[in-house]
C-alpha cells in the first residue's frame, strides 16, 4: 500500500534571504508553503554580507543599469518595510584623481541619485575635508558624499521567515533535503534531521540553496544544472572603532575595486569586502592571509590611524553564488539574478532554481520567482509584498519613541539595552517584555543584557536552537561573550529544548 505524504503547493530548499523571500511571497498569495534549511536561518551567505541595502554604485561601471535601478528603488521600499533593522547611512568617497576623474564620479552619482525613486534618502554632494579633523590622510582633501542604507542582514532573513510562518508557511531548520524526484505529477521530497527521515510532496520545488544551488541539482536531484556557477568569496575584518561619526567610507583601490569602512555595533568598524574565486568546502569558508593583507592595505592607504593584523578582533567570510557570465574578473561578474525553470514534460511538477542575487533585491527576486510559478497555480493572489510591513514594524512610530516607551515601562533598564531591543525587534519587543516592570523580572542573566525572557522568545518565535544562533545571528552579542558565558547559555538552551520536546510529546 502506498504511503500518503503531506502535499504542499511549494517546497523551498534554503533558508537564506532568497529562500525566505520566496516563501513569504508565495504564502501571502495563498499557496501552501514548506521551507527547509539544513543549518540555521541565514547561517551562511546571508549573514556574511557588508550589512548594506545599496544600489551598488560600482555596478554602474559595468553598465548594470537594470540591477542598479531595481536596487535603488528597493532601498526605500525596504526602509519603509523594516525601519527598525534598516537605517539611512551616508557614505564618503575620498577622491583619488588617478583612479577616476571627478567628472566621472559626479556623473555616476547624478545617475545614482536619479535612476531610482528617492524620497527619504538625501542626495549626493561634493565635499572638502578638514585636515585637522578628518580621519583621512592629509593628502586626501576632496571627496563625495551620498546615501545608501545599513541593515542587520541575519535579522532581515529571520523577519521574513516569521512573516511567512504567520501566513501559514511551515519553516523547519536543521533539516536537510537529501533528495527529491518527480512521481505522479508531484515532487516527492526526502528530508532528514536529527530525529530521523520523512517525506513530503510538492506541486512545485524551489531550489534557493545559494552556493549549493548547482550541487543540489546535480547530487540531490540527479539532474544537469542549466547554468554554470561562479563561487566568489567575500571576507570582512572587524576592528575597534577607528573614527567618530556615523558615516561610512567607500575606498577606491588601484585594482578599481572598492572597500567599505562602516561603523558597526557602536564599538567597532567593519572593513570589507574582498572578491576572489572559491573552490573549497562551502561549510568551512575562512578569510585567507592574502585577504587580510588586502583589506589592511586598502584601509591604510586612506586613513591616518594605521592598522595591523594585531588590531583585528574578528573576521567573517561568505560565498556568493553568481551565474557564470565568463568574466575574467571576479569583481566584474554580474550580481544580477537568473531564475531557471525546469519541467521536461507538460504535466511535470516544476523546478525553479535561483542563481545569483543580492540582499538588496531579494524581494523583487522573490516576486519574479513566484510569477514564474503563476501558470501552475491559477488561483494565486496578486503581488503584495511591496507595502507590507515586516514583523516589528507594525505600530512603530519611530525607533526613538519605542526606546522611550521601553525605558518608561522598565524603570531600571539601561538605555543601551532598550536601544538594542528596539532596533532588533521593533514593536515585537512587547512579546517578551510586556508586563515587565523591573530588570529582575527578566529571568536568568547570561551577561551583556541577554536574559532568559529574550532567549525563550528567540527559541519560541525565531527558530533559535544554539548559542551560535542567538549570539551571532539573532542578537550580535557574540562579540562580547566569554567561553564560560557561552557554556552557561548552552546549558540553559539544552534544558529548555529538552523540556519543549517533552511537552510536545506529551
Automatic annotation (TrEMBL):
Reactions the enzyme catalyzes: a quinone + sn-glycerol 3-phosphate = dihydroxyacetone phosphate + a quinol
Enzyme Commission code(s) on record: 1.1.5.3
MF GO annotations: glycerol-3-phosphate dehydrogenase (quinone) activity
Alpha-glycerophosphate oxidase C-terminal domain boundaries: 385-491
Keywords from the named record: FAD, Flavoprotein, Oxidoreductase
Entry keyword Transcription regulation: no
One of the Pfam families matching this protein, by short name: DAO_C
Domain annotation FAD dependent oxidoreductase: ranges: 9-361
Name listed for the protein in its UniProt record: Glycerol-3-phosphate dehydrogenase
Organism of provenance: Acinetobacter terrestris
The encoding gene: glpD
Amino acid at each position: 500500500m502506498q504511503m500518503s505524504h503531506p502535499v504542499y503547493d511549494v517546497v523551498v530548499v534554503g533558508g537564506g534571504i532568497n529562500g525566505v523571500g520566496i516563501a513569504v511571497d508565495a504564502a501571502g498569495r495563498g499557496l501552501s508553503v514548506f521551507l527547509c534549511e539544513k543549518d540555521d536561518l541565514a547561517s551562511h551567505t546571508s549573514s556574511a554580507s557588508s550589512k548594506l541595502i545599496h544600489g551598488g554604485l560600482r555596478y554602474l561601471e559595468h553598465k548594470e543599469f537594470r540591477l542598479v535601478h531595481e536596487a535603488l528603488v528597493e532601498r526605500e521600499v525596504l526602509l519603509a518595510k523594516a525601519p527598525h533593522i534598516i537605517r539611512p547611512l551616508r557614505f564618503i568617497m575620498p577622491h583619488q584623481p588617478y583612479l577616476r576623474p571627478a567628472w566621472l564620479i559626479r556623473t555616476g552619482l547624478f545617475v545614482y541619485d536619479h535612476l531610482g525613486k528617492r524620497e527619504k534618502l538625501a542626495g549626493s554632494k561634493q565635499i572638502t575635508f578638514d585636515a585637522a579633523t578628518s580621519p583621512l590622510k592629509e593628502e586626501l582633501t576632496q571627496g563625495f558624499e551620498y546615501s545608501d542604507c545599513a541593515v542587520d542582514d541575519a535579522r532581515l532573513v529571520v523577519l521574513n521567515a516569521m512573516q511567512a510562518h504567520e501566513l501559514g508557511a511551515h519553516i523547519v531548520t536543521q533539516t536537510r533535503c537529501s533528495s527529491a524526484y518527480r512521481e505522479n505529477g508531484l515532487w516527492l521530497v526526502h528530508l532528514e534531521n536529527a530525529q530521523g527521515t520523512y517525506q513530503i510532496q510538492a506541486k512545485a520545488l524551489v531550489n534557493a540553496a545559494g552556493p549549493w544551488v548547482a550541487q543540489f541539482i546535480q547530487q540531490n536531484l540527479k539532474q544537469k544544472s542549466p547554468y554554470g556557477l561562479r563561487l566568489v568569496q567575500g571576507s570582512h575584518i572587524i576592528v575597534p572603532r577607528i573614527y567618530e561619526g556615523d558615516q561610512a567610507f567607500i575606498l577606491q583601490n588601484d585594482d578599481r575595486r572598492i572597500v567599505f569602512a562602516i561603523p558597526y555595533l557602536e564599538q567597532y568598524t567593519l572593513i570589507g569586502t574582498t572578491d576572489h574565486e572559491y573552490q573549497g568546502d562551502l561549510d568551512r569558508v575562512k578569510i585567507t592571509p592574502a585577504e587580510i593583507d588586502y583589506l589592511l592595505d586598502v584601509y591604510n592607504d586612506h586613513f591616518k590611524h594605521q592598522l595591523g593584523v594585531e588590531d583585528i578582533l574578528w573576521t567573517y567570510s561568505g560565498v556568493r553564488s553568481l551565474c557564470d557570465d565568463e568574466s575574467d574578473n571576479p569583481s566584474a561578474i554580474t550580481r544580477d539574478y537568473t531564475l531557471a525553470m525546469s519541467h521536461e514534460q507538460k504535466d511535470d511538477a516544476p523546478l525553479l532554481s535561483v542563481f545569483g542575487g543580492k540582499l538588496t533585491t531579494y524581494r523583487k527576486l522573490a516576486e519574479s520567482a513566484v510569477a514564474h510559478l503563476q501558470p501552475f497555480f491559477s488561483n494565486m493572489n496578486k503581488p503584495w509584498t511591496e507595502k507590507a510591513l515586516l514583523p516589528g514594524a507594525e505600530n512603530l512610530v519611530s525607533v526613538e519613541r519605542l526606546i522611550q516607551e521601553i525605558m518608561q515601562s522598565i524603570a531600571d533598564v539601561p538605555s543601551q539595552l532598550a536601544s538594542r531591543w528596539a532596533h532588533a525587534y521593533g514593536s515585537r519587543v512587547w512579546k517578551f517584555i510586556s508586563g515587565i516592570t523591573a530588570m529582575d523580572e527578566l529571568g536568568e542573566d547570561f551577561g551583556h543584557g541577554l536574559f532568559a525572557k529574550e532567549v525563550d522568545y528567540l527559541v519560541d518565535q525565531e527558530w533559535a536552537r544554539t548559542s551560535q544562533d542567538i549570539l551571532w545571528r539573532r542578537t550580535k552579542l557574540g562579540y562580547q561573550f566569554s567561553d564560560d558565558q557561552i557554556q552557561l547559555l548552552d546549558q540553559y538552551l539544552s534544558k529548555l529544548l529538552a523540556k519543549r520536546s517533552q511537552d510536545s510529546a506529551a
